[in-house]
Amino acid sequence: MISPSEIIPSALLSRWLDPASADMVDQEELPPGLPNALREWYTLTSHWPDIRSAGTRILKPSRIQLNENRVAFMEDPTGDWTWAFDSNHPNVVYEGESNSTLTPGSEDLQELLAHVTVRSIILLANSSRLGTQVPDEVLPEILSPMEAIGFGGWKWPRPGYRVHAAESLLAEVGPAIDPQAPWLNRTGYSTVRIAGLGDSDLTYLDSHLPGTWIDTGINSR
C-alpha 97: how far from its chain's center? Predict the structure, then answer.
């Protein structure tokens, strides 16, 4: 298993996404009480701003209310799920549907930002494929080129998601949704999204469940 401490967001962004823009965040725009990990992440992602809103949204610095006990800094696309850090212990992260229901997360702030980076890269990759109903019995073969990253995980969009990585592959695997109401987890199936540095890195999937995979990379849009 890959330790989260081995994940270097700057190296991943440089390797996986288009060349960095020359834009730099204005340090004066960042609140002075912002945790160092988040301050560094804002500075880094100013070169790849799309990272901040791929899947989840990191709030703009102007929206961060540092006077709160639980300081919200990230939300899901609908704004229904929130991540916040503890104003007194900024490396401690909470998550939940609202400020009144926030509970401690399983990742500290540094790890969460690395997790956000990897997940956003998967969603923004030039080459990627998605299988929404992949039988669990074939998962070991599909994921065999990769190792799991030991991220603590989130409760959103539903518990059970995990991330895998290799030199030229990144993948997020989670519970498949039953196509029948009430759309609970479908037993025995998983949702798998795999990104490759190039289309050729994903051709091995052609021998696993042909017709299952949807091209979702930027190159296919």
Answer: 18
The span from the CA of 107 to the CA of 104, in Å, is: 9
**pTM strictly above 0.85:** yes
Closest CA to 34 of 9, 65, 58: 65
Whether pLDDT at 9 is above 80: yes
Q: Cα 142 to the chain's mean position, in Å?
A: 20
Asked if 200 and 110 count as a contact pair (C-beta separation under 8 A), the reply is no
Rounded to an integer, what distance in angstroms lies between the CA atom of residue 171 and that of residue 175?
A: 14
Give the integer Cα–Cα distance in Å for 47 and 13.
9
Residue carrying the six token digits 């696309």: 77
Q: Which residues contact 216 (CB under 8 A, 6 or more apart)?
A: 128, 129, 130, 193
Compute the Cα dihedral for 213, 217, 220, 221 and give only its sign.
Answer: positive
Tokens representing residue 145 in the block: 């080129």
Q: Which residues, in sequence order, are CB contacts of 68 under 8 Å at separation 6+?
A: 84, 87, 99
Positive/negative CA dihedral, 108, 109, 110, 114:
positive
Segment 101-143, tens digit of pLDDT: 899 999 999 999 999 999 999 999 999 999 999 999 999 999 9
- What is the token pair recorded at 199? 């289309």
Neighbours of 12 (CB within 10 A): 17
